[in-house]
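Please fill in the sequence for the structure shown.

STRUCTURE ENCODING:
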């Protein structure tokens, strides 16, 4: 079943693997080699990739497969030039920056604000999962 998702929607590991033309085991392996790949993981261990994670994975795939770099070579490129050189600014950073701006406008001290980035990530992922399950049940 094909579900039309917005560009900002989170993707499952199967969706990302299909898009990139690699196996899910390859994505899990790359997570061990590139600390910058940080999909959200739900309690059952299910991975959800943000749009910026997918852009980074596309970049890694291209460097490894098309440009013929080794994993160590890609790691060195990222260390020397920075990831933003290859993938640009990220969607999630912009989203959380907007949240921080909202907090500052409300003059809420950070230590009193009850929701951290990790909690917000989990809430968003949970809502996306519910949405996907609802869409599947409607089809």
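FILLED IN BY: designer on duty
SEQUENCE:
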């Amino acid at each position: 079943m094909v579900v039309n998702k917005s560009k900002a929607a989170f993707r499952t590991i199967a969706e990302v693997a299909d898009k990139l033309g690699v196996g899910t085991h390859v994505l899990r392996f790359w997570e061990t080699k590139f600390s910058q790949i940080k999909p959200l993981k739900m309690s059952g261990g299910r991975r959800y990739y943000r749009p910026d994670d997918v852009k980074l994975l596309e970049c890694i795939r291209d460097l490894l497969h098309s440009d013929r770099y080794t994993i160590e070579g890609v790691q060195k490129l990222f260390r020397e030039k920075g990831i933003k050189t290859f993938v640009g600014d990220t969607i999630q950073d912009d989203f959380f920056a907007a949240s921080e701006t909202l907090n500052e406008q409300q003059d809420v001290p950070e230590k009193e604000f009850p929701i951290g980035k990790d909690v917000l990530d989990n809430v968003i992922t949970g809502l996306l999962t519910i949405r996907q399950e609802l869409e599947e049940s409607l089809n």
